[in-house]
Design a protein that fits this description.
single chain, mainly alpha, 2 domains, 5-stranded mixed sheet, 25 helices, 5 strands
Length: 495
Amino acid sequence: MLKRKEYLLLAIATLAMGALAISNQSFWIDEGTAALKAIQPTAGSWWEALRTEEHSNLQLLPHLFYLWGWEKIFGPSEISLRAANVPLLFIGLAGVLWALRNRPRLQLWFCLLALVNAFTWYYTSEARPYIFLFAASCLALGALIRFVDEPEQSLRSRPWFALFCLGTFMVSAISMIAVPFAISWLLSGLLLIGFSNSLPLVRRNMLTALLFCAAMILLAAYYLWTVSLGARASGIATTHLSNLFFVVYEQLGLAGLGPGRSELRLAGVRALQPYGIWLGLGLLASTWLSWEALRSIPHGWWRSRRAAAFMVATIVPLVVVLCAGRFAHVRILGRHLTPLFPIVLFVLALGMQRLQQKKSPISSIALVVIPLIFLASALQVRFAARHARDDYRGAASLAARALEQGGTIWWAADESTGEYYGVPLSKSRSGSGAIPLMTPAAVDIERELEPKMIVLSKPDIYDASAAITQYARAHGYATRHVLQSFLILQKPGPP
């Protein structure tokens, strides 16, 4: 049985990890759109800003509302809004402690690996819904683990049923892309419990079951409404087989050992080559743990109902989401598959537990070295310059200084993040101000007022037709400043 000291130690460890992981770096595109909603003064203005945007942010309602409430207490700074993830991370890990209360070694390794994983560090330091989604996934999957360990007690427990329903609903509500996971986990639960036990379970928990069904129906209606408005994920890229590699690369916690995201965007797999030694160590550690976890599975388990439930909970939603990304021309990344992350951690923790049981000199060394490799990756993703986020704050500062002198600038970057950092965006195309541009055609760009400064971020998004780049070259603009994911272009002369 868990004692309070386990939760206290977990709280201290989570706070310590948050203090190290969370940075005051500039918000990047997605964070800036969330932050702009968080600083709205009232719930009404928050909803109006969200509704009129008609963006996929409409499908992230629980997190954006949580962030709005958090900002009213702790303020709008980068550190403040990112720190909103820390209590959510603790809740998710506490759910795992509860689920694995009969397996103390597995508890230890799961929580330790979660707290030294670069995936956890990166998204704890991001004002986005992924740690929220991780926490909800831990609750839903924790309930399933609890049933596997104590089936009879779980079937009699009203709190167990309520927790499973709550976790599954929250996974669905936090992000529409996570709905296939929630549905698969419901099917997985049905496989584990069995149809004959499911009906009596629902009858004993009729009120909870009715509330859950009503909430899911309302959520489905809400998602259909957002889709009718045109809310969808960005279609700037699509999903290929290589995306699966990068999902594994990120969720194993290897991202900190490799190149920055900007390098990966530009060079793809080739960007990994200079980091081969460190990535090789990380891949070796992950492969070793996965192999040990596989060897720990009892003989005949793959022919059991539990194996079928595991496949339904993992492979089915993974295939559905990847196929949806492919046919909807949406690029699926590691963060979009966050509900899989607790399962990845569980497999790695099983490997650590088996190494601990061996009690050999090599396994004893591995128990120390492997977490240190993961920690090195996490520290790199936090402190290495190559992993810094897009510098919207710096770009906005340069734009503001240029605008103080009068004239026009072109802002070929995210509008919401620019607005959060105080860039006065002008939609009138006349007079002074910052004119927002996103992949303009060459014929259209010639009609714009000549800018004294061009702020260009991620040309594959904001200048895919190369019209801005060609205009700058033809009219004598040169790079005056290089910031993370930004080029600041001006004509030669006094700044």
